[in-house]
Amino acid sequence: MRRAALRLCTLSKGLLAPSRGLTQGSQNPEKQRVFHIHEVRDKLREIVGASTNWRDHMKAMEERKLLHSFLATSQKGLPPRRMKDSYIEVLLPLGSQPELREKYLTVQNTVRFGRILEDLDSLGVLICYMHNKIHSAKMSPLSIVTALVDRIDMCKKSLSPEQDIKFSGHVSWVGKTSMEVKMHMFQLHDNEFSPVLDATFVMVARDSENKGPAFVNPLTLESPEEEEIFRQGELNKGTRVAFTSMSLLKMAPTAEERATIHEMFLNTLDPKTISFRSRVLPPNAVWMENSKLKSLDICHPQERNIFNRIFGGFLMRRAYELGWATACNFGGSRPFIVTVDDIMFQKPVEVGSLLFLSSQVCFTQGNYIQVRVHSEVASLQDKEHMTTNVFHFTFMSEKEVPLVFPRTYGESMLYLDGQRHFTSMSAPVTLKKDYLIEP
C-alpha cells in the first residue's frame, strides 16, 4: 500500500548500509558470503526439494507430505530469530560476467526492470526461508509464497547493464503466519555501491502441501534501530488495513473526490447544447477508454515456481512490461518507472492457464502517468475468468502528457483510485538523463 509519504530515495548510504548487527555475529558461515544471483533459485529448490524436471514435480510434492511432522502447532513452540539471521546479500555481476547481460538488456542499452522484479520476488522468498530455517531438517516444511508487493520506490540513479548490481535484505516484521521483508538494490558506481531502489514485500507461510497457513518463527529485536524497523512494519500493516477499509469497492468517494468527478464531468459537456449526454473532450485530453492495451500469455512449465505454480515474478514482469508499453503509447515518449505498489496476489496461477492482462491509464498529472494492470486467468477446460492480481505503476514521461478523462461512473472510480495512489507521493521526482530504468 501507499505510505502517507513517499519514501523515494530515503536510501541514503547511512540508511541503506545494513547495521553491523545485521552483518556480523552470525554463526552460519554461509550467511557471511555473497550469493550469486543464479544460486538463489537453486537454493530455493534445495530447500523445498523441488526438481528441475517438470515430469518429477508430482513425486516431489508427494515427498513434501512427509514434512508435516516438522510443522509447529503454535508459534510459541518456535525459537525466536534475529534480523541478522535472515540477512543475505546477492550479487548480479553484469559488469564482471558480461554473458549475463543479454537477459537484462533493453534495446536502449539499459537494464530491464521486469527482470529485476523477478529477482526481488525470488530473493524475498529465500530471505523468509533463512528466517525459518530448521537445522535438524534438510528440507523446510513451509511453503512460503509472496502475498503482497507493498512498495517499491526508485532512486534517481542510472542502471547500467555494464556494472555489477547487489541486492540485500532481511525480515523486518513478523506476524503469526506472515512476514514483511525489506530489500535494497545497489549498483556499482565509482568503485562503490550506490542505492537504486527500496522494496517492501509481504510473504505468507503455508504448510508443506501449500493448503493451509503455518506458523513462522517470532522475531527478537536487539537494538533501537531494529525496534524502529519493526515498528514501521506494524504501521505498514495498519496502513494496509485502513486502505482496504476505505476501498472504493466498499466505500463511497469522499466529498472532495465527488466534487472532482463532477467538475470533470462539467468540463466535458458540450457548451453548444443543453444536454448531459453531449460530451466533448477539453484540449489536450484523452478518454480513459482509449488508453487501454491488452495481452495474452500461455503459462508454460518454464515459468513455474518451486511449488509448480506460475512464478509471481513472471506475472509482475509481464504486467510491468504491458504497463510500460501503455504509458509509452499514451505519453508519446519513453516513460521511466517511479513507483510500484499494492500488488496483491489474490489467487495462484496454475501451469497451463491462459493469462489475460489488461492495462490502462487511470490518472495523469504533468509528466506523471498512473497505470493500472488487471490480471485474469482461465483454464483451457473452463472459460470462466478469475482475477488474480491488480498492479499499480507510476511512470514519468520525458514530456508533459495529456489529461485522462473518465466517461462512465466505473471509470470515475478508476480515476479516483489512481489519484489516491499518485497523490500519496509527498515530493515530485526530478527526471535526470541518467535515470534509465526500463522494461
UniProtKB/TrEMBL annotation:
A GO cellular-component term linked to this record: mitochondrion
Q: Which GO terms describe its biological process?
A: acyl-CoA metabolic process
InterPro entries attached to this UniProt entry: HOTDOG_ACOT, HotDog_dom_sf
The entry sums up its family as follows: Belongs to the acyl coenzyme A hydrolase family.
Please state every residue range assigned to the domain named HotDog ACOT-type. Answer: 86-209, 289-401
Keywords attached to this entry: Hydrolase, Mitochondrion, Repeat, Serine esterase, Transit peptide
Q: Which residues form a coiled coil?
A: none
Q: Does Nucleus appear among the keywords? A: no
Q: List the source organism.
A: Lipotes vexillifer
Record's superkingdom? Eukaryota
Protein name in UniProt: Acyl-coenzyme A thioesterase 9, mitochondrial isoform X2
Q: Where in the cell is it found?
A: Mitochondrion
GO molecular function annotation: carboxylic ester hydrolase activity; fatty acyl-CoA hydrolase activity
Q: What is its main location?
A: mitochondrion
